[in-house]
Amino acid sequence: MAKITSRSPLAPDAFPALPVIKGVRFATAAAGVRYAGRTDVMLAHLTPGSTVAGVFTRSATRSANVLDCQAKIALEPEAGDGAAILVNSGNSNAFTGRAGDASVQALCEAVSTAMDLPPSRVFTSSTGVIGEPLPHERIVAKVADLVAGLDEENIAGAANAITTTDTFPKGASAEIEIDGQTVRIAGIAKGSGMIAPDMATMLVYVFTDAAIAKDDLQALVSGINERSFNCITVDSDTSTSDTLLMGATGASGVRVAKSDTAFATALESVFLDLAHQVVKDGEGATKFVTVQVTGAASDNDARTHAMAIANSPLVKTAIAGEDPNWGRVVMAIGKSGAAADRDLLSIRFGDVLVAEKGWVSPEYREEMGAAVMKEPEITVAVDLGLGDGAATVWTCDLTHGYISINADYRS
Amino acid sequence: MAKITSRSPLAPDAFPALPVIKGVRFATAAAGVRYAGRTDVMLAHLTPGSTVAGVFTRSATRSANVLDCQAKIALEPEAGDGAAILVNSGNSNAFTGRAGDASVQALCEAVSTAMDLPPSRVFTSSTGVIGEPLPHERIVAKVADLVAGLDEENIAGAANAITTTDTFPKGASAEIEIDGQTVRIAGIAKGSGMIAPDMATMLVYVFTDAAIAKDDLQALVSGINERSFNCITVDSDTSTSDTLLMGATGASGVRVAKSDTAFATALESVFLDLAHQVVKDGEGATKFVTVQVTGAASDNDARTHAMAIANSPLVKTAIAGEDPNWGRVVMAIGKSGAAADRDLLSIRFGDVLVAEKGWVSPEYREEMGAAVMKEPEITVAVDLGLGDGAATVWTCDLTHGYISINADYRS
């Protein structure tokens, strides 16, 4: 059965050229946690005075790393402290009992000692198989090399080291002028399966050279996360290790508050770009699907409908088969539990009005819908005709590739 | 791509020999609604004095037939009235606007006239493609033949006529002695995809020769449905046409009340047998999976966890791959939203204790779990260690067969 042999057909042509974020340096190593012949650990160092914020999986069976990060994010750092982020792929250190906690502690201590940082300023993430002990000593053995190799130009290497079943590394960036000065944002992400909100399952690390107070940074990250990573789903499954960490180094000398719209807009574009890349690397994905729901009784209802459509195996397989099967969209709306009136619904595939007022549109012809479904990027738009509630979520199709990857991932 | 070419590997050896239920007669016809060369309509007639009860999909986009049945089930019939059930496969008459309502009316009138029944005592179901107008005139043209062909021994023919993507017709029965007299129950069902509770997506028709007052029959059906058809899921998708109708003819002369435990137990065995057959015919299914959750904070929580496990694409693909990937079970528990404590959980595959106290069990070896996963019927048992809440649900694995069937069903 399947190994992941080829790049997603929805992948960008190449990893983007990301700007250097002054105050952040990266290093990678091949520690052999699980994979051979590739890097599987990345270390990022943030210059003293940097602030760090984060959002995490809401899973009740969170990994030891996530629990540790959550506790540390809440702390007020000393003014002169830097920070470090250590990430390994190949093993998630999740559901590994007390040994999992000990692994996190060992990793944090090693980085803390090597970099002269308090352990409370070392954040770790692990991604990969659940339930097997993390051979943390293999990572600890690489810490000195990692510290020695830190380089502000190595963010692309970091993006590669954190991948698991990903078929391409993910990066995105933005540059804006604030008060005549340039502020830069760059981020990397990994994730391709077990992707569903609360929060969408993946690892994401975003950096900026703006100076942002800790609470403002957290407010920005939490708010934008709700409209980006929390609006994507590949398979409705939620990882125990989801982590988004964002560091603001202040090296540009530009101070940004949470109310700064230009910065927030730029940051949202980076979050959305990374979120969409994760969907485009959805396991087995051949179609990128935008589900837009309008006219719902509330925004919450709109989101419930959109997620029901995006997670429906029957909708997702129809899209895989390039079948404009709008009946399955109706089915998904019906099952979602949110308010709907069969006879007020309208459905569009792309620009084509398929169904309205409880039935197929009089102008609609099957070949019109079929033409839309052949595109690699498809919009399914539903108007419920009930109110002003709206939501947009992103997903991919469900294909033989997903089955191949997941029926044979661990064995 | 896929047509459904072969019988599910989980199918029973043959359709069971079902007892005749005195007071019910069946007929079938090949009306060419969508399929050629097979029967696609069944008519059942219940003798005057029969009571009828039903449960239906909770979808907000219910089909015209379901809305019509729900209205009629609520009515008090005249004492001398019989009842009829007319079912077609090939077209679900769902999301067909006002034309859908007109089709239901046309069908009910045709049967009403031909059988001298009030239209309020004619129940219809339609199953198949959503959103295409039902060519009801093809069915109406067969009504006279159907009425002429009614036969109390033709329940197996009826089970065949109502199938769509099913790979085998489904039947189950029970016989019990009450006060020295024999009471019989026989039922048929169709369903293999778009199966999820509220209520599980399918058509089910069950008959008994017991005499049961209408309200008692409804109470029995509703209660037992909660523990059987509402506890199965194939793909988490819910049809717009789910219908379970039960008729009690009274022809045995034995009066049964809702408090009659022996009857209720026998009826539950028939419901469960049919529900399990639907799962075993789940689209592409190669494994029948029982998910047992105990030790939850409440029965509701247990059900939430059980359904999260049963609906998880990652759990279902692991089972398809015969991979004892208990980490994915932990993931599903974590995402369910119900209470869980990572460090109190235990997980068994079959009789094998796999994980306990937040980690893999010390006695567990991968080959022990792998041996269980090779069986066609697998139990995944989770104890949360929190309370007395318990629930059991049934599902199947997620395979290439599901993708093949659903990526190419309509085109």
Question: What report would you give on this structure?
Answer:
Two copies of one chain form a homodimer. By secondary structure, chain A is α+β, with helices and mostly antiparallel strands. In chain A, 31% of the residues lie in helices and 25% in strands. In chain A, the strands form three sheets. Chain A has a seven-stranded mixed sheet, sandwiched between helices. In chain A, strands 3-10-8-7-6 form a five-stranded mixed sheet, sandwiched between helices. A four-stranded mixed sheet of chain A has the order 1-2-4-5, sandwiched between helices. Chain A is globular, with a radius of gyration of 22 Å.
Task: Give the oligomeric state of the chains in this entry, treating copies of one chain as homo and distinct chains as hetero.
Answer: homodimer
- The best one-word shape of chain A is globular
Could you name the CATH homologous superfamily of the largest domain in chain A? Answer: L-amino peptidase D-ALA esterase/amidase
Which whole number gives the mean pLDDT of chain A? 91
Helix residue percentage of chain A: 25-40%
β-strand number of chain A: 16
What would you say the CATH architecture of the largest domain in chain A is? 4-Layer Sandwich
| The CATH C-level class name of the largest domain in chain A | Alpha Beta
Distance between the termini of chain A: 10 Å
- Which regions of chain A have little confidence, pLDDT < 50, spanning 5+ residues? 196-200
Largest sheet geometry of chain A? 7 strands, mixed
CATH topology (fold) name of the largest domain in chain A: L-amino peptidase D-ALA esterase/amidase
Q: Which value, in Å, is the CA radius of gyration of chain A?
A: 22 Å
The proportion of strand residues of chain A reads: 25-35%
**How many domains of chain A?**
2
Tell me the strand order in the biggest sheet of chain A. 9-16-11-15-12-13-14
Secondary-structure class of chain A? alpha+beta
Query: Helix count of chain A?
Result: 12
Specify which chain pair forms the largest interface.
A-B, 73 and 73 residues
